[in-house]
Amino acid sequence: MKINNICCIGAGYVGGPTMAIIAQKNPDINVYVVDVNQEKINRWNSSDLENLPVYEPGLAEVVSSVRGKNLFFSTDIDKNIRESEMIFISVNTPTKTYGDGKGMAADLTYVELCARKIAEVSRTDKIIVEKSTLPVKTAAAIKNIVDETGNGVNFQILSNPEFLAEGTAMRDLEVPDRVLIGGEQTESGKKAIELLVEIYSSWVPKSNILTTNLWSSELSKLSANAFLAQRISSVNSLSELCEKTGANIDEVSKAIGMDSRIGSKFLKSSVGFGGSCFQKDILNLVYISKSLGLNEVADYWNQVIIINDHQKRRFGNNILKSLHGTVANKKITFFGWAFKKNTNDSRESAAIYVAKQLLNEKAILQIYDPKVSEKQILSDLKNLNVDMDFINNKKVICLNNPYDAVGDSHAIAILTEWDEFIDYDWKKIFEKMKKPAFIFDGRNILDRESVENVGFVYKGIGN
Ligand code: NAD
Ligand code: UDX
Predict the structure, then answer these.
(1) Which of 48, 205, 275, 336 has the most Cβ atoms closer than 10 angstroms to its Cβ?
(2) 8 A C-beta contact, residue 44 and residue 86
(3) Quick one: which atom of ligand 2 is closest to the CA of 271?
(4) Which strand ranges, in their side-by-side order, compose the sheet holding 438-441?
(5) Structural domain includes residue 212
(6) The domain that contains 435 carries what CATH number?
(7) Which range marks the domain in which residue 121 is found?
(8) Is 249 in the same domain as 359?
(9) Residue 266 falls within a domain, yes or no?
């Protein structure tokens, strides 16, 4: 088999950027990214590159260099599956909100729909690549579905989890620490692995392409996310201890991170991790462990989530306590809504949880984020069952300019570490606020001394 055409089902944060890079690096392969969401596909095809559905530094440039040449976005799912030799499944796998495993297990509905669709329309042999993050053993379920409902063609299943982080996706794809490919350890399984290795080796050194069995690959993805999130919860748990003892969490992080066995990355204390992956994947790991009767293992990983929830709540409580125990009818300005900088993604952002907590205390929120739209902010609150009366009664106000957003407010809460916040005219901001004016820096990005010199009361995390 030779790979001339690739189809990727799911044009989201992973499917779009990943396929853009695969297309750019493999000009002889046509790459078709398909999705059920017509509006999203229209935006991927839009001539206005500012309007792509995903904001990632450097993405628009890559898309514009290959779109219409060997990268195509379409809603014609059947045709593009049928005409491709290799099909990536890159659809969402959120936490289940119903039935068995509700609130913990991964919802595999969309993945199963893809498997059934591939089986239904395929007339020639296909390699199916799991790009979505999936529970260990999912490849076996996909294989059963396609073999039982297919037209007698052969399917090979590979696991090729994605390790990109949002905000740095293009760099992560260009120079990945590793590419992981798991497959069946049979002759045809190994051939399929080789075909995918060939695609990546157009730009990734072979020494960085790791091949394993299917289950190791599936489990490694959940494990990597659990490890990363565990580091953040570890440092966040220590931040509370710092606040009680006079230690400074940034100094502690630096001191422990200089130990080469520990390493300095992913030790930044914060208001809590967000994003669509960490919580979902740890819950899934906990669920799998519990299902296998491994209760101690489940409890161990669950603690990462417990600390993260505690950190978000603690941040809101600190605002409440500092403002004399009540925020009712007080204006609080949020700087940042995205779950991290350099993305327009707000899924599971700590900002949403802190907002809900403060709205329940009857605060008025003035929100500014450089990339997240008002529509998205209101939809995030609605999805978290925030009382819509708050929104109808203008308790949530989204503003396009940070200097307008601080008008008459008692406090600023920094929820995202956008670089532009550091460069603001903090003196001008101070003058527009009620006094005493507070800054609750949920990302420890501001220089304490400079903002205190302007007149602010500064409260960082863990100091
Ligand atoms: P996303 O929600 O941005 O995109 C998923 C897309 O799939 C949506 O556009 C949706 O319309 C489409 N879709 C769903 N069902 C479909 C179907 N049956 N047919 C066609 N299209 C369908 O999700 P994402 O953030 O790109 O994540 C995708 C997967 O990758 C998840 O499993 C996630 O855990 C994993 N992952 C995400 C990241 C990340 O940073 N976002 C990183 C690594 C791995
Ligand atoms: C994560 C993984 O990093 C990536 O490998 C995987 O493919 C998808 O999940 P992502 O969620 O996009 O990526 O971003 P990441 O940089 O991991 O940040 C996740 C959250 O942790 C953000 O809210 C971030 O602000 C927070 N964080 C990160 C901290 O609070 N402290 C840190 O030191 C690092």
Answers:
(1) 336
(2) no
(3) 30
(4) 396-398, 364-368, 331-335, 411-414, 438-441, 457-460
(5) no
(6) 3.40.50.720
(7) 5-204
(8) yes
(9) yes
pLDDT value at residue 388: 81
Domain membership of residue 190 (yes or no) is: yes
DSSP symbols for 421-441: GGGS-HHHHHHTS-SS-EEEE
Any atom of ligand 1 within 6 Å of the Cβ of 91: yes
Instruction: Indicate which residue's Cα is closest to atom 30 of ligand 1.
Output: 132
Domain boundary among 147, 181, 204: 204
Residues 273 and 166 in one domain: no
Distance 256 CA to ligand 1 centre (A): 36
Residue 277 CB less than 6 A away from ligand 2: yes
pLDDT digits (tens, 9 = 90+) for 164-205: 999 999 999 999 999 999 999 999 999 999 999 999 999 999
Task: Please indicate, yes or no, whether residues 154 and 250 belong to a single structural domain of this protein.
Answer: no
Mutation test residue for ligand 2: of 54, 235, 237, 277, the one with most atoms within 8 Å of CB = 277
The answer to whether the CB of 84 is under 6 A from ligand 1 is: no
Q: Is the CB of 339 under 6 A from ligand 2?
A: yes
Asked whether residue 352 falls in the same domain as residue 461, the answer is yes
Mutating to test ligand 2, I would choose from 92, 173, 222, 232 the residue with most ligand atoms within 8 A of its C-beta, which is 232
Structure token digits, residue 105: 């297990």
Is 8 one of the annotated active-site residues of the chain?
no
Q: What is the pTM of this model?
A: 0.96
Check: CB of residue 40 under 8 Å from CB of residue 34: no
Q: Is residue 228 part of a domain?
A: no
Residue 392 dihedral angles phi and psi, to the nearest 5° = -60, -35
Instruction: Tell which of 149, 180, 204 closes a domain.
Output: 204
The C-alpha R_g of the chain, in whole angstroms, comes to: 24
Task: Report how far ligand 1's centroid is from the alpha carbon of 49 (Å).
Answer: 21
| pLDDT tens digits along 377-429 | 999 999 988 888 888 788 999 999 999 999 999 999 999 999 999 999 999 99
Each residue of 267-312: pLDDT tens digit? 999 999 999 999 999 999 999 999 999 999 999 999 999 999 999 9
Question: Looking at the 3D structure of the chain, how many domains does it have?
Answer: 2
Verify that 158 and 266 share a domain, yes or no.
no
252 and 155 in a common domain: no
Residue 392 has a pLDDT of 79
Q: Which of 307, 245, 303 lies closest to 271 in space, CA to CA? A: 307
